[in-house]
Amino acid sequence: MKKSLLIGLSTTAVTIGIVGLAGIASAATSSTSGTSLVDKIATKFHLSKTDVQAVFDADRTDHVAARTAKQKTKLDADVKTGMITQAQEDALIAKRAELKTSMQALKDKTSTEKHTAMKTQMDNFKQWLTDNKIPDTVAHEHHVGPEGPEGHEGPEGLDGGMPMTN
Q1: For residue 68, which of 152, 154, 155 has the smallest C-alpha distance?
Q2: Longest C-alpha distance within the chain, in Å?
Q3: What is the pLDDT of residue 150?
Q4: What angle is formed at CA 140 by the lines to CA 134 and CA 143, rounded to 5 degrees?
Q5: Pairwise CA distance, residues 63 & 158, whole Å
Q6: What pLDDT score does 50 carry?
Q7: What is the pTM for the complete model shown?
Q8: Residue 4: what pLDDT?
Q9: Under-70 pLDDT residues of the chain
Q10: Which conformational region is residue 42 in: left (phi greater than 0), alpha (psi within -120 to 50 degrees), or beta?
Q11: CA distances for 141 relative to 3, 47, 81, 87, angstroms
Q12: Other CB atoms within 10 A of residue 126 CB
């Protein structure tokens, strides 16, 4: 009885810890007070800000690589089932890289400029899908498309995609 209770509590603690760390990682580069989480951790624990930032950057890189590999695997499966061709998959991957670069250029723009540029990118991307005979459901399922300048991982996280919306 005590052993199963201990295991249950341990599992709960680990889960809470993982969720907490995920929250920390997503908030690493921004805060409403203007002080980044990296700064706060470095100050609180008397660590080098550079070292703390390196940990956050490495973690982000790992997450991006894992997500990219997962998306590639799903696109490969769509090729095998005939939903898209290999050429369409290759075009989607290249388009995603192109869109990422164009979104990074928006980093220092105003909110209005970002919004306008993102709307244009989305409209152009939808037309590109049509021109390349790629079902928008494929882009939606695999989160391939214009991403916001804040990505899925905070203000500097330009590594995720935004699901297509109709």
Answers
A1: 152
A2: 63
A3: 40
A4: 110
A5: 12
A6: 94
A7: 0.60
A8: 46
A9: 1-34, 142-166
A10: alpha
A11: 43, 41, 15, 18
A12: 17
